[in-house]
Design goal:
Dimer. The protein has 577 residues and is mainly beta. It contains seven helices and 32 strands. A six-stranded mixed beta sheet has the order 10-9-12-17-14-15, with no helix packed on it. β1 and β2 form a beta hairpin. It is globular. It starts with a helix and ends in a 25-residue tail after the last strand.
């Protein structure tokens, strides 16, 4: 018998003390509660030197970064001071296990927060990683209502890579028109497109050419709000850069002049490390890359943000990699990198295929699925209006949130017909041609998924209503991570392409690109009770109907808080003073 066990037998009190010590050092006991009080309001801001009304959190855009440790609880008391607009915030990548009402999706998991009201979001960050948050009401994300969430590993856990410093970089595109103007144009006859962004921002900073503005507009290139983002580095040190895209339209290519990047994390999951010269990143994605400051320390270098997958009409967004002790405002002597060709789809697919789960951390997917849902992405017309549709259905949100309607059996609150698992003429549809019949239908029907079943989703891209044009669609699933089984070009072949699935080390993600004229296959377990949005993360595309809703195990959801109610059929569940 060991001496320490004999000691505990002789003195039982020591055993109790030891147990208390172990308990005190366990992740459960160490978990903290982080309280945040946010006020959301419009303020004049000049992130690219051009002054416009922006949506801010406590006066900031991007909003404050939330820092927490795995297992901690985050509480956000959000006051809506927008005066004439509702609001809701989605915690992108946080699975909301046990708290589906805190997902922050207006019309799906909650009623919107009315002007003047305060709403409390409370949830556990159950996994370490890099995440984001953003508005999920109308097109408010484009107006600046977004930020980052950084979740560190428990103290007892060592990550499978090392670095000296940790930095975050948030990327987005920026328009000078208000989201009201954009939304009105998208819903108009004739259709008025939002067009390409005026600027590309790195950590909320960019530079617009002020000589192009009118005399009645304010644009000041000396405004400190639009001074370039500066990443100061110490020669020889390694930096973990947590890079996130919150873009409303653009697919990005991000490059650090003269420096390679090693990708090690994607959407909170460890990646088998591989080196890239530049990073393709799509709206809603997050990555961690390792960068070593190993270049000539006598000069500074460019951080460059370029548009890909769309013919760019926006200048390169730039920041400065400042080698200490050079002056941070010292411009690099070279021109900023322009990135790869914008229409080199093969280059982007190659990088997508290279992202695999890290050895020793891969969670193998179930070998087969119980259900296959194929979602054809098309541009359509309904009553003369331009819309986006999935399987010829353009999605609309109901007045009563699905979570409440299903939990309270309000069957008349939305269309009870099942959403279609595939599209018409799936064997003969020509994805390279303009749709022969561009007409689609509105619906708010949903997909009812058997709880704990395994579901395959095949995203199929197609041509728009413009000849020889197919757009990139980044798809985001709320409440889950999914296995990315494969990418391909052309129309998905259920026999030939399914055998190519990666069932060994597929990466798990919550957001994935659907490349032009191509397909993307993913698999997920329907094991998180609730109602979950799955949609294109391009703001205008979702606004125009490009999304679906999955329901799974709602009967297992606990009692719903009345704070998420008050709209549609839920008004009767809320006591009025």
């Amino acid at each position: 018998m060991s001496s320490w066990l004999q000691c505990f037998q002789a003195k039982p009190a020591l055993l109790l003390i030891f147990a208390l010590m172990v308990s005190a050092t366990s992740p459960l006991v160490e978990a903290k509660i982080h309280h945040h009080r946010w006020e959301v309001k419009y303020q004049f801001r000049s992130p690219d030197c051009f002054q416009k009304l922006s949506i801010t959190i406590n006066g900031q855009t991007p909003g404050p970064t939330i820092y927490a440790q795995q297992g901690d609880t985050v509480v956000v008391e959000l006051k809506n001071s927008l005066l004439t607009e509702n609001v809701a915030i989605h915690w992108h990548g946080i699975r909301q296990i046990g708290t589906p009402w805190s997902d922050g999706t207006e019309g799906v998991t909650q009623c919107p927060i009315l002007p003047g009201d305060t709403f409390m979001y409370k949830f556990v960050v159950d996994r370490a990683g890099t995440y984001i948050y953003h508005a999920h009401y109308g097109m408010q994300r484009s107006a600046g209502l977004h930020g980052m969430i950084i979740v560190s590993v428990p103290d007892s856990v060592v990550e499978p890579f090392s670095y000296d410093y940790d930095r975050s970089i948030l990327l987005n595109d920026w328009w000078h028109k208000s989201t009201y103007e954009q939304a009105a144009g998208l819903n108009s006859i004739p259709f008025v497109w939002v067009k390409e962004p005026q600027s590309l921002l790195i950590n909320g900073r960019g530079k617009f050419n002020c000589s192009m503005v009118g005399t009645d507009q304010v644009c000041n290139t000396t405004d400190p709000q639009c001074s370039p983002y500066v990443l100061t580095v110490v020669p020889g040190k390694t930096y973990r850069l947590r890079i996130a895209s919150i873009s409303s339209l653009s697919a990005f290519n991000f490059e650090l002049e003269g420096h390679n990047m090693t990708i090690v994390e994607a959407d909170g999951n460890y990646v088998e490390p591989f080196v890239v010269k530049n990073l393709n990143i799509y709206s809603g994605e997050t990555y961690s890359v390792l960068v070593k400051a190993n270049q000539d320390p006598s000069r500074n270098y460019w951080a460059a943000l370029n548009v890909v997958s769309r013919n760019p009409a926006t200048p390169t967004g730039v920041g400065i990699i400042n080698y200490y002790p050079n002056h941070p405002k010292k411009s690099p002597p070279s021109a900023p990198p322009t990135g790869p060709l914008w229409n080199d789809t093969a280059y982007r697919i190659k990088q997508s295929l290279a992202i695999k789960a890290r050895k020793g951390y891969a969670i193998p997917p179930p070998p087969t699925s119980d259900r296959v849902i194929t979602l054809l992405n098309t541009q359509n017309k309904i009553d003369g209006r331009t819309r986006w549709a999935v399987n010829n259905i353009s999605f609309t949100l109901p007045d009563t949130p699905y979570l409440v309607a299903l939990k309270e059996r309000l069957h008349h609150a939305f269309n009870q017909s099942p959403a279609p698992d595939t599209y018409n003429n799936s064997d003969g549809y020509d994805i390279y041609d303009i749709p022969k019949n561009p007409n689609a239908s509105y619906s708010n029907s949903i997909y009812r998924i058997e709880f704990n079943s395994t579901v395959d989703v095949v995203l199929q891209n197609a041509n728009t209503m413009n000849p020889n044009n197919s757009e990139t669609h980044p798809w985001h699933l709320h409440g889950h991570d999914f296995w990315v089984l494969g990418y391909g070009t052309g129309r998905f072949d259920p026999v030939k392409d399914r055998v190519k699935y990666n069932l060994v080390d597929p990466i798990m993600k919550n957001t994935v690109p659907l490349h032009p004229h191509g397909w993307t296959a993913l698999r997920f377990r329907a094991d998180n009770p609730g109602t979950w949005m799955f949609h294109c993360h391009i703001e205008s595309h979702f606004f125009m109907g490009m999304g679906v809703v999955f329901e799974e195990g709602v009967e297992r959801v606990g009692r719903l808080p009345t704070s998420i109610m008050g709209c549609g059929e839920t008004k009767r569940f809320v006591r009025r003073p």
